[in-house]
Design goal:
The structure is a single chain. By secondary structure, this protein is α/β, with parallel strands linked by helices. Among the domains are: about 220 residues, Valyl/Leucyl/Isoleucyl-tRNA synthetase, editing domain (Isoleucyl-tRNA Synthetase, domain 2, Alpha-Beta Complex), CATH 3.90.740; about 170 residues, Orthogonal Bundle (Isoleucyl-tRNA Synthetase, Domain 1); about 100 residues, hypothetical protein PF0899 fold, CATH 3.30.2320. The protein is built from 32 helices and 34 strands. The strands form nine sheets. Strands 7, 8, 9, 10, 11, 12, 13, 14, 15 and 16 form a ten-stranded mixed β-sheet that branches. Helix 2 crosses helix 20, helix 21 packs across helix 23 and helix 25 runs antiparallel to helix 26. It is elongated. This is tRNA synthetases class I-domain-containing protein.
Length: about 1000
């Protein structure tokens, strides 16, 4: 009986795929929530994607990897929870909605109106994202996702903030922060990316020493030169000349040695001895007048600011951060524009000064005499104006307008940032980061380098700037004294504000109000102060970093009872060691005392690269929309590709080593199309052999002990496959799963499926030989449906739909492979004796195949069934015993070699039977004997039905075929009767 099935050759139409998508997503997720035990709960917490732009291939990778993890857990009988989330607040969304408006109208919007537009934009984006995520066959709580702009989410976030205030972690300080001039807001380190090819204007600037009598005397002593009537300058080098107006000090290294040098162009200068050669390369020859001056000596001097008309002597301070690696060994300090400068000056009572507004322009607080700078951009015309002013007073010694170095950029606007002193809210990480890092000792990381990255990034931070100057976000619930500006941030005040927000909504905080008394806690209303509401919002990393509160609210009881970490798996891109992983760890640690991290396992995936190894980006025009990959023709590297369907997209994700960057290339998609085609054909082949007919007599599996050796050997291969695949899944190594399955498919296609064709197509439908082959095929189907369902559930569900119960081994209630669960290979399949014996037989088969090729080229045969095989072996050997045993078990050797007959002859004990033709012997060493394999003519005649040369005469049927045809005639007659 030839195979026949309605299971299609190719990926089903979009309409059919959508039918099965509902089953594998909505129905399976709903079923497992009802049927699988609560105490087995597995939680994969979704790191919320940003609700601002269309989905891209990176979204597909992220979502599909998460889904494969979840589906494998369901196959293992665990209930899973996956609540999709979206990060909704923040600058990009706010800017997006404002960019869509005319500038005049945008400027006239109130904060509440901006928030309304931003909310609508986020909702629209989420709807698009959700539709795409569902199309990829991912399952989850689609009807109940979380959004960081949901009222209940915002309340939980404010409660975490309150807990951190009570823990003494939150404070406000006037200090330098990274500042985005494009967005007019402070940035945290996690919001920066560093451009290695940034070009700055690097300058040498002279600061005149006041009363340098000691240096004058030293020059006289060492060089016998009188410089008493000449000015001496300390020479600084900086890549931020725009900060010179805010200079408040100069730093030297107390342990370094310095020199007084003379330059024909720039006069008398003080530089570090170790930097003199480098300075001379830039400024010209330098003549040393005095040397070996300790940096600590220089701290006894003061200097005059070159641009201040009312300049007073400014200090030279000792600092460890001054090194001999760059510059002059003397550092200009602007404590309002640099963190190291700020900390140094704080020690000496020098306050930060930052004459720069939120747009990155000099403001009216510039020093007297520098009013010309007001309104100019510090990174553009303002910096040029500073250089001009320095040149006019002969303080500018050198300019390099193309100095290349690494520089921080705003990761959203992709523009360079500045450092600017403003009053901001901070979280003190010094008090919690050690505890956070210790909690990671019990966390699994994949790849393992993730632990080092998260450790390192966490340890490097001392504080976290959590305030932002935007309208679209969760407010920092601080009130300020209208007269003094002092902040009110106490537990009682925050608790009262949270309760008020629950009543009137969070937008009310941003509304203009004549009377804000209702925001003031009762205990503060009678103290005589008048308050105003703060306008700062929280960093969006604080928003997403408190998403664990959702899991704690829903499943905290279960986790606490089992003394487990809150979440089983966090999975995001490798950039999240600086982002969501870290903010989640820090907020959880700050508000808990259990010493645990919020997660058991942290997985990271790489980024998308095109075929040329470039990161995919809109600016390069090399992005690919996942929808096109699934449903439409799409182009990669100028090559037009056919759509690969949902299963193709998922298989492409699975075949990649996601722990590194992934290549989106023609070759990678062609491999997917090839693999997917082979898997589909495998399912089709299996199902085709189970098509119900009047002669279909397979109702249940044949017991293992009744299977033939070839069947048992195939089941051993399935046993090994199942165990290895399970191990790979447990390690989240989906690419290894795909590799193992592809290898097994190739082995089955080239070996077992070929070997059993005769049994399936020509043997009696009720014969044991045919039923054993069908038994193995049923096991193959069940195992493949099991191990492939986490990766390509759409294909396995479609195959399951076309399979009768005798194939799935389940009744109609098992509507999906996920309901059937993981198909564990029985231990009895682990037959190492059969494995070892077929290892030896495969060596003989290789020699036989070589001989068959010789016979084919000689014109003796067309197919291998046109041949017989004579094996000559030393008598009394293990090899002889093996061949006799398999030669006497039905026709195992003939079936294994796919020939019409096999004769085993003891060397020297008997003559080989005569044949019509024969080929040369091929020798192979097996066990303890050299076996000679000779391809010969078959001993019988070709059967007209099965094509084996086992008939007694030409055009006749062999014995087996006569019996099969006779039994079928009897069956038909009985049916007609």
């Amino acid at each position: 009986m030839l195979p026949s099935t309605e299971f299609p050759d190719r990926t089903a139409s979009k309409k059919v795929q959508e039918q099965f998508l509902s089953v594998i997503s909505d129905q399976v997720y709903s079923w497992q929530k009802r049927q699988l035990p609560e105490d087995s709960l597995f939680i994969l917490h979704d790191g919320p994607p940003y609700a601002n732009a269309d989905v891209h291939i990176g979204h597909a990778v992220n979502r599909i990897i998460k889904d494969m993890i979840l589906r494998y857990q369901v196959m293992q009988g665990r209930r899973v929870s996956f609540i999709p989330g979206w990060d909704c607040h923040g600058l990009p969304i706010e800017l997006k909605v404002l960019e869509n408006l005319e500038s005049d109208k945008a400027r006239q919007l109130t904060p509440v109106e901006i928030r309304k537009l931003a909310r609508q934009h986020a909702d629209n984006t989420i709807a698009k994202h959700m539709s795409a995520f569902k199309e990829w066959g991912t399952m989850g709580e689609w009807e109940n996702p979380y959004k960081t702009m949901d009222p209940d989410y915002e309340i939980r976030q404010l409660e975490v903030f309150r807990a951190m205030v009570n823990a003494g972690v939150i404070y406000r300080r006037f200090r330098p922060v990274y500042w985005s001039c494009q967005s007019q807001t402070a940035l945290a380190e996690a919001e920066l990316e560093y451009a290695p090819e940034h070009r700055s204007t690097a300058v040498y600037v002279k600061f005149r020493l006041v009363a340098p009598d000691e240096l004058v005397a030293l020059v006289k002593e060492q060089s016998n030169v009188d410089i008493s009537d000449k000015p001496i300058h300390v020479l600084i080098w900086t890549t931020t000349p725009w900060t010179i107006p805010a200079n408040n000090a100069v730093a030297v290294n107390a342990d370094m040695t310095y020199q007084v040098v003379c330059s024909d162009s720039h006069g008398l200068l003080v530089v570090a001895e170790s930097r003199a050669v480098h300075v001379a390369n830039d400024l010209g020859p330098l003549r040393v007048l005095a040397g070996s001056i300790r940096g600590s000596v220089l701290t006894r001097f003061v200097y005059a600011h070159p641009l201040r008309s009312n300049a007073v002597g400014q200090s030279i301070l000792a600092a460890d951060f001054v090194s001999a690696d760059a510059g002059t060994g003397i550092v200009h300090c602007a404590p309002g524009h640099g963190m190291e400068d700020y900390l140094l000056c704080q020690k000496h009572g020098i306050q930060p000064y930052s004459p720069v507004n939120e747009f990155g322009q000099y403001d009216a607080s510039v020093p007297a005499g520098l009013e010309i700078l007001t309104g100019k951009s510090v990174l553009k015309d303002g910096q040029s104006a500073v250089l001009k002013l320095l040149a006019e007073v002969n303080a500018l010694a050198g300019v390099n307008s193309g100095y290349k170095h690494k520089y921080p950029y705003d990761w959203r606007s992709k523009k360079p940032v500045i450092i600017r002193t403003t009053a901001q809210w901070f979280a003190d990480l010094g008090s919690i980061k050690d505890k956070a890092v210790r909690s990671l000792d019990n966390v699994n990381f994949l790849p393992e380098t993730g632990q080092h990255r998260l450790n390192s990034f966490t340890r490097e931070r001392s504080e976290w700037c959590i305030s932002r100057q935007r309208a679209w976000g969760v407010p920092i619930p601080a009130l300020y004294d209208a007269r003094t500006g002092d902040s009110l941030l106490t537990d009682a005040s925050i608790r009262h504000i949270i309760n008020e927000i629950k009543q009137v909504g969070i937008d009310a905080w941003f509304a203009e109000e004549d009377d804000i008394t209702h925001w003031v806690a009762p205990e503060y209303r009678e103290q005589g102060q008048s308050y105003v509401k703060g306008k700062d919002t929280m960093d969006v990393w604080f928003d997403s970093g408190t998403s664990w509160t959702l899991i704690q609210e829903k499943f905290g009881r279960i986790r606490n009872n089992k003394h487990e970490n809150l979440v089983d798996v966090y999975l995001e891109g490798s950039d999240q060691h600086r982002g969501w992983f870290q903010s989640s760890l820090l907020t959880y640690t700050a508000s808990h005392q259990n010493g645990r991290a919020p997660f058991n396992t942290v997985l990271t995936h790489g980024f998308m690269l095109d075929g040329r190894g470039r990161k995919m980006s809109k600016s390069l025009g090399n992005v690919i929309a996942p929808g096109a990959v699934v449903w439409d023709k799409f182009k990669i590297d100028k090559v037009m590709m056919q759509p690969i369907g949902v299963s193709g997209l998922r298989l492409w994700v699975a075949q990649n080593d996601y722990t590194t960057d992934m290549s989106v290339s023609v070759e990678s998609f062609k491999r997917v199309q090839d693999s997917l085609g082979k898997l589909r054909r495998t399912f089709k082949y299996i199902l085709g052999n189970f098509k119900p007919t009047p002669y279909f007599m397979y109702e249940k599996d044949v017991p293992y002990g009744e299977l033939g050796p070839i069947d048992q050997h195939t089941l051993y291969g399935l046993y090994e496959l199942e165990k290895s695949v399970k191990s790979h899944y447990d390690k989240f190594a989906f690419n290894r799963v795909v590799q193992a399955v592809n290898k097994n498919v190739a082995e089955l296609s080239s070996s077992y499926f070929q070997l059993i064709k005769s049994r399936l197509y020509t043997d009696n439908p009720s014969s044991l030989s045919r039923r054993t082959a069908l038994t193995v095929l049923a096991h193959v189907f069940r195992l493949y449906a099991s191990i492939l369902s986490p990766i390509i559930p759409l294909l396995t569900q479609e195959a399951w739909h076309h399979a009768p119960g005798c194939v799935t081994g389940q009744d109609a209630d098992f509507f999906s492979p996920f309901v059937a669960g993981w198909y564990e290979a029985p231990q009895e399949w682990n037959n190492e004796k059969v494995r070892d014996e077929f290892l030896h037989l495969s060596q003989i088969r290789d020699a036989v195949n070589d001989g068959l090729e010789i016979a084919r080229k000689s014109g003796h045969i067309g197919t291998s069934l046109d041949a017989g095989v004579v094996l000559t072996v030393d008598p009394g050997t293990n090899a002889h015993e093996l061949l006799q045993r398999y030669g006497n078990v039905g026709s195992v050797l003939a079936e294994y070699f796919v020939t019409s007959d096999v004769s085993v002859v003891a060397r020297g004990n008997s003559a080989e039977p005569s044949r019509r033709w024969s080929c040369e012997r091929l020798e192979v060493a097996v066990l303890d004997s050299n076996i000679a394999a000779r391809i010969v003519s078959p001993s019988g005649h070709k059967c007209a039905r099965c094509w084996h040369w086992t008939a007694e005469a030409d055009s006749a049927l062999c014995v087996e075929c006569r019996e099969t045809v006779g039994s079928m005639d009897e069956f038909n007659a009985a049916q007609r009767g």
